[in-house]
Design brief:
CATH architecture of the largest domain: Orthogonal Bundle
Largest sheet: 3 strands, antiparallel
CATH superfamily of the largest domain: Citrate Synthase, domain 1
CATH topology of the largest domain: Citrate Synthase, domain 1
Structural class: mainly alpha
Bound molecules: carboxymethyl coenzyme *A
Number of domains: 2
Oligomer: single chain
Radius of gyration: 25 Å
Distance between the termini: 62 Å
């Protein structure tokens, strides 16, 4: 006999029928977009005063936290699209600033919009002189991602009106300022570690050319970047501009959901990106290649990975979402060849290619669907362009700022969103009586 039904079965539309074996009761839960709302599970209770059923999903492996119209990924088919446009078409034909506009506004810019946007970005690249002094405060060997996190968080204090997040003009200017100033702060971090004088932005240059100028210019009156390097930077920025609800974007959304200003929210994203399982992976790839040292050491290294000895993972392989191939990796591999034609081959590249060949034919990696991800090759490009290893993630952060800001604004304008606040399953002790045996100097007795 079926038990009582808590909510009427929907007369139209798909639904899930759930039977609770604890009570024998049946429930129906509507299905929309192949998804149920976990809040609908709350009606499932044993006793009336129960909290109700929750979904348990550590690391959000199977939980959608938002509806988003920005980036589409089909991990099994290796598809990545921004606002419907395939990543390979954007990487081949668009500029990073065009893509940044697209991510935020949903459509490609008109010529007029693009010109104005580029002009605005160009004229907001300067940072307050105090930011320069702020950067000076870091140790000579500070990790540039720590400097980026702090530098961007500090911007919040220079633009206090950015906290008026419900004012569209404030969001406009914050978007422009962040995209414009990230390369400047990043270049200052680079020059600080090198002990070189900071180079101010050059408003006559394109976005990637200006960035390379702030990195590399010495005494020349105008720095002319190699066009292959400049294009490589622009394409890598496009590839890294967004990747739907990854760790750092989720961090930006979660922190932003408290209605803090966007500089603070993006600083949280930079901190998340710093980790070796996320943006720090391309740095980890290069360190791994250095550790391998020679092609002849690869078989032993692979065995160590498979057996869990030494390095437990092959860095630059595997992805939470892509289980066939990472479409960005294919584009980056081609780009890598172009850059190496200019820079000359490196030993890292020989090791990387052999590592890739062996891993792609090894049962361990095939069975687990572990393919090279975007970071496997980006590190090689950045190395060929002579960027220091610990600087790679900074380049990723500049690019991802476009996606973070688009996602932050989408979250803000989404009427369904509230402050992010997951539930937990408490596993600690029940109530107990406090009784301390400690005796310490500042103990206050009442
Ligand atoms: N090398 C060796 N084994 C691996 C690797 C790897 N890179 N990645 C996953 N595995 C194994 C893992 O040990 C597990 O094996 P088993 O089933 O025997 O326990 C199986 O594959 C499934 O792994 P998982 O940890 O459940 O997969 P995940 O989806 O949680 O992790 C990942 C995804 C990217 C964190 C992971 O693959 C990884 O740590 N890769 C190396 C770091 C890396 O390259 N990260 C950059 C990701 S791309 C940039 C971005 O979008 O952020």
């Amino acid at each position: 006999m079926p038990g009582p039904t808590a909510t009427p079965t929907p007369t139209s539309g798909d639904h899930l029928e759930i039977k609770d074996s604890r009570t024998g009761k049946s429930y129906t839960v509507p299905i929309t977009d192949d998804t149920i709302r976990t809040a609908d599970l709350r009606q499932i209770k044993v006793k009336d005063d129960d909290f109700g059923m929750m979904g348990y999903d550590p690391a959000f492996m199977n939980t959608a936290s938002c509806r988003s119209a920005i980036t589409y990924i089909d991990g099994d088919k290796g598809i990545l699209r921004y606002r419907g446009y395939p990543i390979d078409q954007l990487a081949e034909k668009a500029s990073f600033l065009e893509v940044a506009w697209l991510l935020r506004h949903g459509e490609l810019p008109t010529q007029g919009q693009y010109d104005e946007f580029t002009h605005d970005i160009t004229y907001h690249t300067y940072v307050h002189e105090n930011i320069k002094q702020f950067m000076e405060g870091f140790r000579y060997d500070a990790h540039p991602m720590a400097m980026m996190t702090a530098g961007v968080a500090a911007l919040s204090s220079f633009y206090p009106t950015a906290k008026n997040i419900h004012d569209p003009r404030e969001r406009d200017i914050a978007f422009i300022r962040l995209l414009a100033k990230m390369p400047t702060i990043a270049a200052f971090a680079y020059r600080h570690v090198k002990g070189m004088p900071y180079v101010y932005p050059d408003n006559a240059l394109s976005y990637p050319d200006n960035f390379l100028s702030m990195i590399a210019r010495m005494s020349e009156s105008r720095y002319e970047a190699n066009p292959i390097y400049s294009r490589a930077i622009d394409v890598l920025f496009i590839l890294h501009a967004d990747h739907e609800q990854n760790c750092s974007t989720s961090a930006v959304r979660a922190v932003g959901s408290s209605h803090v200003d966007p500089y603070s929210a993006v600083a949280a994203g930079i901190a998340a990106l710093y980790g070796p399982l996320h943006g720090g992976a391309n740095e980890a790839v290069l360190r791994m290649l250095q550790e391998i040292g020679d092609v002849k050491n690869i078989p032993a290294f692979i065995e160590a990975v498979k057996s869990g000895k030494g390095e437990s993972k092959l860095m630059g392989f595997g992805h939470r979402v892509y289980k066939s191939y990472d479409p960005r990796a294919k584009i980056v591999k081609g780009l890598c060849d172009e850059v190496l034609k200019v820079s000359g081959a490196t030993q890292d590249m020989d090791i990387a290619l052999e590592l890739e060949r062996i891993a792609l034919s090894d049962e361990y990696f095939i069975k687990r669907k572990l393919y090279p991800n975007v970071d496997f090759y980006t590190g090689l490009i950045y190395r060929a362009m002579k960027f220091p290893t610990d600087y790679f993630t900074v380049l990723f952060a500049i690019a991802r700022t476009a996606g973070w800001m688009a996602q932050w604004e989408e979250m803000l304008l989404d009427k369904e969103q509230k402050i992010a606040r997951p539930r937990q399953i408490y596993t600690g002790p029940g109530e107990r009586i406090y009784k301390s045996s400690l005796d310490y100097k500042h103990k206050i007795s009442v």
